[in-house]
Amino acid sequence: MNVRLLKAKRVERNLRQIDVAKALGVTEKTMNHKECSAENKFTADEMLKLRDALGLTLKEFLGIFFEWELTETDKFSAERINSIRNVDLRREMI
Q1: What are 47-62's pLDDT values in tens digits?
Q2: Domain containing 28 — which CATH number?
Q3: Which pairs with CB-CB distance under 8 Å and at least 24 residues apart come from 37-42?
Q4: Could you tell me the residue range of the domain that residue 57 belongs to?
């Protein structure tokens, strides 16, 4: 998990840990522990809530939770990326 990118996106959107914690339904202490851990401590449901709370793009979401960067040289077309957005991530990550 890319903790630096997660924190950067939270700060970029002028949100505090307590704000995000409330969106996830966890305590600020729990959010701090999850955000500061290099290991992904978020459940699939929390990851989706974070995506919504932070307004993450697909690229940002993948970069944070899967440390995957989409570049122009990637073999995925815009159509393929759009189809990935429609995947129910909760089911796919179980």
Answers
A1: 999 999 999 998 889 8
A2: 1.10.260
A3: 37/1, 37/3, 38/1, 38/3, 39/1, 40/1, 40/65, 42/1
A4: 3-92
What per-residue confidence (pLDDT) applies to 66? 86
User: Domain count of the chain?
Assistant: 1
What residue spans of 1-94 are helical by DSSP H?
3-12, 17-24, 28-36, 44-54, 58-65, 78-85, 89-92
* CA 56/CA 48 separation, integer angstroms: 10
**pLDDT digit string, tens, across residues 17-35:** 999 999 999 999 999 998 8
d(CA 25, CA 13): 19
- Can you tell me whether residue 13 is helix, strand or coil? coil
